User: Fold Beta-galactosidase from Trichococcus shcherbakoviae subsp. psychrophilus.
Amino acid sequence: MSKFEIKEDFLLNEEPFKILSGAIHYFRVLPEDWYHSLYNLKALGFNTVETYIPWNVHEPKEGQYNFSGQFDISGFVRIAEELGLFVILRPSPYICAEWEFGGLPAWLLTYKNMRIRSSDTLFIEKVSRYYDKLFEVISPLQVDVGGPVIMMQVENEYGSYGEDKEYLMALHELMLKQGVTVPIFTSDGAWRATQEAGTLTESDILTTGNFGSRSKENFQDLKEFHESKGKKWPLMCMEFWDGWFNRWDDPIIKRDPQNLADDVKEALEIGSVNLYMFHGGTNFGFMNGCSARGRKDLPQVTSYDYDAPLNEQGNPTEKYFALKTMMKQLFPDIEQHEPLVKESMSIRDIPLAGKVSLFSVIDELAEKKVSKYPKPMEALDQQYGYTLYRSNVNKDSDEEYYRVIDASDRIHFFLNENKLATQYQEDVGEKIYAYPKSGDNQLDVLVENMGRVNYGHKLLADTQQKGIRTGVMSDLHFITDWEQYSLEFTKPLSIDFDKAWKENSPSFYQYSVTLDAPKDAYINTELFGKGIVLVNGFNIGRFWDVGPTLSLYVPKSLFKEGQNEIVIFETEGIWSDTISLASEPNFKKI
Assistant:
């Protein structure tokens, strides 16, 4: 067992210890690849790995917990320990991290009068129950009981959100109650306003700063804040931003490798550093976050490559080698090794095996739920994905118009299975003109949740409830009697591809490829419009032809020797008779 302390320096077994850390999120990297990423961190000469812990994957439904497979946090930490790495855990209820709803579970939104990220007793009650399960797993991993965990964080960048000290104290007390004995810290912007709002210095909780440049100025700000509270704490950048995340329809963001190495060197000459990110990984499934911007929010892409030292696949980049050279110059005695590199494969023109319209198979894929008025996703016990809303309307005149009132995020509107409109955030609510037939007409609205915001005041906005929140109007009245189908794609699908397919309708496209020796690959999506890809039943994430990414990463472990099924669910009516696997990602010039 070891002892880790915070005094005027970080001390490991009473000796000064400079934290050389990199962020790797276990939930963005499949378990088969954890060793690869962690080894490459250790090979660079680093001594610590940091990870957030997202509440929404560990309690996906209220009262149902998952700490296995992709979300086996203990397994990830133990591999780090085997490689000789220490671990920093950030088990905040909220993590930001460009992750769906900042890691908060969407089922919290069903509690209308509860205020998240606050001292609201109901919110604290929900956190406390989750912590009962979480800390059963992570408390035994602490360094003073034989594990590798040296520090844990309370909340996350709270100074950029609130100043509810009762809330921070409640979380701190919950952590102590759960047996946390390693030092606890907060993480905020380095300037005084965020430090003051987001910290608990009166409880001797270390404050750290987040930045990606101007280390001297930022560390000086942090030092002055410490001194204003009578503290002589070590300086640490808990998130040294070495790249950045990407949004749909925006250019890829890059940073010069040597510029990064120089800036990290400046930081390491003053204090300790955690590179955010070291390996970004992938927002598999529907777990991408969303940036809050005015009326129109900006969802982030599936790839969380982040322009990090390891690329999305986990292989070293130019940044990795620039950092390696700098580290050896700064710390001549540091132990470094050659990094591991994974192979990729390329297969062109995999033929289409089948196609079928969503409307033909919807009753096989989802349970029908009936209500007088349409309900938002969360009220349907759905968190993510798509919801199909269906009703029947009579013809009242030759030309009519409909309006979808208060819905998020993106809708396709159909009458008798013919698409009449696609509306995105700023268009939802506009008139949709139609020419119904005599008698009954089938009205369908497919709504896609494109990701809840992960940062800022909109965490509290009504728009974080997805689906149709108010209703659908015909002329001046609300339509009643709705059927609702939830499509979360969390379970293997049994799709009958012999049923009818219709042009310009949301559809499933099936491809089959036989592999003798599977490797990593990128599925090229440039010939498709918008949707998701399932590889042997696993949802690898969203694609969209607006770019900047036009491919999706597939880890080797999702493939198998022999026959592999790739199913594309596409909503725009843009598809291809073939797909291809590539050895490198594909980008759109924006």
